[in-house]
Amino acid sequence: MSRTHATKILMVLVIFLSQPAVWAQESAGENTEDASWAVSAEWWNYHSFSQQKPATPIKAGYPVIESQSFALGISHRINRPKALHNVKMTVSLPSSLDSDNGKDRNHLLQRKSQTYFRSGLDYHLIFPFFQWKGLSANHGLTSGLLYENRELHYLSGRMERTEDINLYIGPALQLNYDLLPNWIIEGSFDARFYLPYSNYGKLQTYDVNGESVLSSGYSGFYYQTLFKLGVSWQLPEKGTLRLGAVKNDLIGFASPKPAFYANRVMHFKLDRLFHYYIMYRF
User: Fold this and answer.
1) How many other β-carbons are positioned within 10 Å of the β-carbon of residue 146?
2) What is the pLDDT of residues 134-187, one digit of tens each?
3) For 260, which of 36, 118, 218, 237 is 20 to 30 Å away at the CA?
4) Would you say 203 and 215 are in contact if contact means Cβ atoms under 8 Å apart?
5) Per the omega criterion (within 30 degrees of 0), is the bond before 63 cis?
6) Are 92 and 73 in contact (CB under 8 A)?
7) Contact, 226 vs 246, CB < 8 A?
8) How far is CA 197 from CA 51, 109, 121, in A?
9) Which pLDDT does position 237 carry in this prediction?
10) Is the per-residue pLDDT at 188 higher than 70?
11) Is the pTM of this model over 0.85?
12) How far is CA 27 from CA 31, 34, 81, 236, 240, in A?
């Protein structure tokens, strides 16, 4: 990334990190007894579809690039009667990528040569919506940063590397149902919009001799949906244990210059990620 773009992204990151802290302080005042921390472990199943069938909802246009990885997360929550603030950071371990042509065969990538890395910083500002018997609903805003780095080594000997950092914003909805004493079923939906002027990426390609063929920046226009379903258990002594799964779809395109329409598409995302998580809040 160029120094200019790196400086802009750093400024956005500083503003993003400072705002939740200010809002949390305004809502919390001197009382911090409702603040809590959580740690989580996640298993990610990643699928990146080809452009052969760029339909919505995502359908498998083969070949598909696949990966399985392990991720760790830490979050901080401040809960108040009028608002809930939650900041979470998740980092995956670099993982190898494989390809499937639809018949469990890899005709695209060299084995164990390519890597995929993903990290996210998420913020939720949530307000009570309604409550009826054991059912409660909350709504609010979600925003954050997504960083991805992917390197592909093709069987032909060519290599492709992409790296991008993206800022998103969008609405959030949460539903909770008191199933049993100390047991709650939890569901949520996030709609995230990645606007062209709030992200930056870089595409690099190399030939079979390792010589650079293309090196160019790009800006993407993406749309992401996350559906989460889980269960939480209030432990007898202290803390809460959560288990669940997340269906995460990300779709969109990227061009050399920021645009809201497909103009000289350099890169695209037709990605589906399944998260399986366990979280302990204390």
Assistant:
1) 21
2) 899 999 999 999 999 999 998 888 999 999 999 999 999 999 999 888 999 999
3) 118
4) yes
5) yes
6) no
7) yes
8) 24, 32, 19
9) 82
10) yes
11) no
12) 9, 11, 9, 29, 23
